[in-house]
């Protein structure tokens, strides 16, 4: 994973509607929660995206925008997002370049990793969670990090 208190690598990816999203466009405006997950429509990943969906109001209360990132194509993200009524954008990293830039390693050498980063208004990484098997831990710790940031 990337070191805390270092700049988050910039990137541009397409969302579930084929619209480009550039991380640096949020700098100076919002905190950002990036959660990398292995694959649309799998059990733990579905639990995770729904947990972020349910916590979305609390995260926006902390001035955060949320993005889920996997290697699934735009079309898969579109149907996955529609099915689960996700209020945030899913980003398509089909070649794994962003996953590599964020040093999200494979789980057991087989599956894409599950890592969440919390990035502050200035584009600095303030927290990270690496737990391949717990969907709820990522959401809980990201929200705790956002709350701690707002009080400091």
Provide a descriptive summary of the structure in words:
The chain has 152 residues and is of the alpha/beta class. It has one domain (26-151): Glutaredoxin (3-Layer(aba) Sandwich), CATH 3.40.30.10. The chain contains 4 helices and 7 strands; from the N terminus they run βββαβαβαββα. The chain has helices at 43-61, 74-84, 97-101, 135-151; strands at residues 12-15, 20-22, 31-36, 64-70, 89-92, 115-119, 125-130. Strands 2-1-5-4-3-6-7 form a 7-stranded mixed β-sheet, covered by helices on one side. Strand 3, helix 1 and strand 4 form a beta-alpha-beta unit. Helix 1 packs parallel to helix 4 (135-151). The protein is globular.
Quickly list its features:
single chain; alpha/beta; Glutaredoxin; seven-stranded mixed beta sheet; 7 strands; globular
Topology:
Elements: E1 12-15, E2 20-22, E3 31-36, H1 43-61, E4 64-70, H2 74-84, E5 89-92, H3 97-101, E6 115-119, E7 125-130, H4 135-151
Parallel strand pairs: 3-4, 4-5
Antiparallel strand pairs: 1-2, 1-5, 3-6, 6-7
Helix pairs in contact: 1-4
Q: What structural class results from the helix and strand content?
A: alpha/beta
Write down the domain tally: 1
Which class in CATH terms? Answer: Alpha Beta
Which fold name is given in CATH as the topology?
A: Glutaredoxin
CATH superfamily: Glutaredoxin
Strand order of the largest sheet: 2-1-5-4-3-6-7
The helix content is 25-40%
N- and C-termini, Cα separation: 24 Å
**Secondary-structure element series:** EEEHEHEHEEH
Give the amount of beta strand, in percent.
Answer: 15-25%
* Average residue pLDDT: 94
Biggest sheet architecture? 7 strands, mixed
CATH architecture: 3-Layer(aba) Sandwich
Let me know the number of strands. 7
């Amino acid at each position: 994973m990337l070191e805390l208190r270092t700049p988050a690598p910039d990137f541009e990816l397409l969302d579930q509607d084929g619209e480009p999203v550039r991380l640096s466009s949020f700098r100076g405006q919002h905190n950002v929660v990036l959660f990398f997950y292995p694959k649309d429509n799998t059990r733990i990943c579905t639990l995770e995206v729904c947990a972020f969906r349910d916590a979305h109001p609390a995260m926006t209360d902390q001035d955060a925008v949320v993005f889920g990132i996997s290697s699934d194509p735009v079309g898969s993200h579109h149907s996955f997002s529609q099915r689960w009524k996700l209020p945030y954008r899913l980003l398509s990293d089909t070649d794994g370049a962003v996953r590599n830039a964020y040093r999200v390693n494979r789980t057991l050498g087989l599956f894409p990793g599950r890592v969440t980063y919390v990035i502050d208004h200035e584009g600095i990484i303030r927290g990270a969670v690496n737990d391949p098997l717990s969907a709820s831990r990522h959401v809980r710790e990201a929200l705790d990090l956002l709350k701690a940031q707002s009080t400091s």
